């Protein structure tokens, strides 16, 4: 394999870098530098042990970098563009999907929910600390028996005088066990409503979920609400129904469209390096036709994924991005990234299952990314309905 060009230059065979502005590239490079210093040397160990060392310290560093709620305005948020937010997601997920999940749950789910639907008191009380990373948030929507059908959630809130009483449970909640505040969605007599729940409220607990084989460098929890009493102003004042939580999920899904390409790029870079260095039958692996076909196919999928993410990012910044388009991006890019990681694993052979390389870690993580924020089946049906006009969900 020719070594005239560096791996990074070969990864930009299509000239994608030319599509980004100087400011966008600067954001990307600053996040990449932070990942190389603070995450990459340690993340394989975090994954193996199933815990992040000093997660609050890491969150504060992300806050200092300005990436928590970075696409929101005011209240200490950076007010950056959708494309800049996407590039940050891509760099973080090139390190690990779990770290990108920490950032996107904080910014695109918990912070966005408060920023978009909360009262002024909610915003002033939580967003500055969350943007700084000194307070951590989580987002309680999924339940043990209700994932793709959140409208059937059983968690409920009832009025008791001027207060609300919340009862129920949520499952697979990123950041839950370390969160200072939870955005919790519940059934009420007025429809589904959102609540801002301080995690030190009596009756609230968040046991950590163990024995995961995916997203191990991420805190995943159950939320238990045992008659949690909240003041009347803890509820989001206006939004009712699934409009509230689904608007937040669209923000997170958009970030995943970019993030998945970060995991894909990491795997592809690993494949190119390995194919250059590994010798079999007297020649580098990259000198064999079948290996070159794998690399070419992976690069095509990666290039198309980044182009799709960028297109959706430009639409987001033009305020023309639709939920159907977000589903298209999430469906295509996560599936493409997982295929790239699986193919890279075949190039690495037995080494592909070792945590000395990032490939099996990305593979396992992407199995979760494929499912959360909407499964393959649900996004397929969203796209199918957009194409045919027929709803096939039931």
UniProtKB/TrEMBL annotation:
Gene name on record? Gcdh
List each copy of the Acyl-CoA dehydrogenase/oxidase C-terminal domain by range: 240-387
- Say if the entry is tagged with keyword DNA-binding: no
Superkingdom of this protein's organism: Bacteria
The UniProt transmembrane annotation reads none
Keywords linked to the UniProt accession: FAD, Flavoprotein, Oxidoreductase, Transit peptide
Q: Which organism encodes this protein? A: Nostocoides australiense Ben110
Listed Pfam families: Acyl-CoA_dh_1 (PF00441), Acyl-CoA_dh_M (PF02770), Acyl-CoA_dh_N (PF02771)
Q: Which SUPFAM superfamilies match?
A: Acyl-CoA dehydrogenase C-terminal domain-like, Acyl-CoA dehydrogenase NM domain-like
**Entry cofactors:** FAD
Family as reported in the entry's similarity comment: Belongs to the acyl-CoA dehydrogenase family.
Which protein is depicted?
Glutaryl-CoA dehydrogenase, mitochondrial
Q: Which GO terms describe its biological process?
A: fatty acid beta-oxidation using acyl-CoA dehydrogenase; fatty-acyl-CoA biosynthetic process
Residue ranges occupied by any Acyl-CoA dehydrogenase/oxidase N-terminal domain in the UniProt entry: 21-133
The GO terms describing molecular function are: fatty-acyl-CoA binding; flavin adenine dinucleotide binding; glutaryl-CoA dehydrogenase activity
Indicate whether Transit peptide appears among the record's keywords.
Answer: yes
């Amino acid at each position: 394999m020719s070594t005239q060009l560096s791996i990074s230059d070969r990864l930009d065979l299509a000239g994608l870098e030319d599509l980004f502005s100087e400011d966008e590239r600067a954001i990307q490079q600053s996040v990449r530098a932070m990942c190389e210093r603070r995450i990459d040397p340690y993340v394989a160990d975090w994954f193996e042990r199933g815990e992040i060392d000093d997660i609050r310290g890491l969150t504060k560093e992300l806050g200092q970098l300005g990436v928590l709620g970075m696409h929101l305005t005011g209240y200490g948020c950076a007010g950056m563009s959708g494309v800049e937010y996407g590039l940050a997601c891509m760099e973080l997920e090139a390190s690990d999907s779990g770290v990108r999940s920490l950032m996107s749950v904080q910014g695109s789910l918990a912070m966005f929910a408060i920023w978009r639907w909360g009262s002024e008191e909610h915003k002033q009380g939580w967003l500055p600390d969350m943007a700084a990373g000194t307070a951590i948030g989580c987002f309680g929507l999924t339940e043990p028996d209700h994932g793709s059908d959140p409208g059937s959630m059983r968690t409920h809130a009832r009025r008791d005088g001027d207060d609300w009483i919340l009862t129920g449970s949520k499952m697979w909640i990123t950041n839950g066990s370390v969160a200072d505040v939870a955005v919790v969605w519940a059934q009420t007599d007025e429809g589904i409503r959102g609540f801002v729940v301080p995690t030190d409220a009596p009756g609230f607990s968040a046991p950590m979920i163990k024995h995961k084989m995916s997203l191990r460098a991420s805190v995943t929890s159950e939320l238990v609400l045992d008659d949690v009493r909240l003041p009347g102003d803890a509820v989001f004042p206006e939004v009712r129904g699934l409009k509230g939580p689904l608007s937040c999920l669209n923000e997170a899904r958009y970030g995943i469209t970019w993030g998945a390409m970060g995991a894909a790029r990491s795997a592809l870079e690993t494949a190119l390096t390995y194919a250059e260095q590994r010798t079999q039958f007297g020649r580098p692996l990259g000198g064999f036709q079948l290996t070159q076909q794998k690399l070419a196919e992976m690069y095509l999928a990666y290039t198309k994924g980044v182009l799709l993410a960028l297109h959706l990012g430009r639409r987001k910044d033009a305020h023309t991005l639709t939920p159907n388009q977000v589903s298209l991006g999430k469906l295509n890019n996560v599936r493409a990234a997982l295929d790239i990681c699986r193919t890279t694993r075949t190039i690495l052979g037995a080494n592909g299952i070792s945590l000395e390389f990032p490939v099996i870690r990305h593979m396992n993580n992407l199995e979760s990314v494929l499912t959360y924020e909407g499964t393959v089946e649900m996004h397929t049906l969203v796209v199918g309905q957009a194409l045919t006009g027929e709803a096939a969900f039931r």
